Amino acid sequence: MKRFLSLLLLALLVLTGCDDPKPKTDPAELYQGTIEPDKVNLFFLSVGQGDACLMTFPTGERIMIDTGPFESRDRVVDQLHALGVDRLDAVYVTHGHADHTGNLLTLVRRFDVEKVYYGGTEGDYGELLEKVRRRGVDCTALLEGDVLSYGDAILTVLSPLSNRTYDDINGSSAVLKLSYGENAALFMADATAQAEEYMLFRYHRAELSADVLKVGHHGSPSSSSLRFLQVVSPALSVISVGRYNEYGHPAPEVLLRLALTGTRLLRTDEVPAVQITLDGKEARVVE
Asked: Which pLDDT belongs to residue 25?
C-alpha cells in the first residue's frame, strides 16, 4: 500500500509538471535528425492529430505505419525528403480512419511505394484502396499471425483476433509488434481497452512486453488500461497527438497510468519528430 501511494504521489507530481503548453521546440519545423544506417530507426512524425511513423532498417528498407491526416500532406512529404527517403517498400495503414489514412494516396503518388497493407476490412476504406490499386500498387489485408521480415527485423500482427468481435473500427485496428534482437516495439494504432483485454487473454506477458510503446488512440481514455500498460512495461512511450486538439488528448488519466508504470513519455505535439533507434539490445531516444 505504501508503495502504491508513493507511486501515485510521483505520478501526480509528474502530471503537474505537464501543464506548460509551450512545446520543447516548434512541432511545425522539419526534424533535423538523420537515419542511422546500422540500426532500426523509428521516426514518429509530428502530423497534428493523427499517426505517422517512418521505420527504416539496416537492410535499407523503409516502411510507413499510418500516414497522418490529409492536412499534413506537405509536411509528411517534406519530412520524408529531408530524411533522404524517396521510396517506401511498404505502407501499413492500421484502420480506415482519415487521421491514419489521409496521406496514403499522396505517398503512393509521390514516392515509389511497393506494397500497401491494411487493417480491418476493405469496406472501412471506401474507395481509397481501389484508387491505390489503380496506380499499380498491391493492397493486402493484415491478419492475426501474419509475419513480415525486413532483414533481422520481424513485424508481427497481434490484433485484431480472428475469433473475436470488436465494437468499432478503432477496436479492430491492426496492432503490430516489431522484434529486433532483444528489442521490441508495440504499435497500438487506435486499439481500445476491449482489444487490449482480448490480447491480454490471448498472449503471454513476454509476447506483449516491449521497450517502445506507441500509445493507443492518441492517449484517449478509452485505451491504455493500467493492467495492459503494466504487462507491456515499456521503457519509452510515444503519444502521437495534435497540439490543443478538440478531444483533450492525451487524457489526464492516461498520463497518470503511464506515469505509474515508470515509462519515459515522448509526445509529437512537443517536437517535430520523436526518433528512437534500436540496435538489437538497447532502445535509445535521439535528442
From this structure: 75
Give the 3-state secondary structure of residue 271: coil
The rounded distance, in Å, linking the Cα atoms of 231 and 106 is 37
Question: Beta strand pairing status for 153-159 and 147-150?
Answer: antiparallel
pLDDT of residue 24: 63
Cβ 212 vs Cβ 236: under 8 Å: yes
Dihedral of the alpha carbons of 268, 99, 255, 193, in degrees to the nearest 10: -150
User: Which of 263, 267, 232 is CA-nearest to residue 249?
Assistant: 267
CA-nearest of 167, 190, 282 to 236 is: 282
Roughly how many angstroms between the first and final C-alpha of the chain, as a whole number?
37
DSSP 98: H
Residue at 271: amino acid letter: V
Handedness of CA 146, 101, 225, 192 (dihedral sign): negative
Going by C-alpha positions, the residue among 76, 71, 67 that lies closest to residue 119 is 67
Handedness of CA 245, 189, 29, 89 (dihedral sign): negative
Evaluate whether 214 touches 188 at the Cβ level (below 8 Å): yes
CA–CA separation, 286 vs 39, rounded Å?
Answer: 12
Closest CA to 188 of 227, 221, 226, 158: 158
For the chain, the 3-state helix, strand and coil shares in percent, each to the nearest 5, are: 30, 25, 45
- Count CA atoms within 13 Å of residue 220 on its CB side: 17
pTM (2 d.p.): 0.92
**C-alpha cell recorded at residue 188:** 497500438
Give the contacts of 163 (CB within 8 A, at least 6 positions apart).
none
pLDDT tens readout for residues 136-147: 999 999 999 999
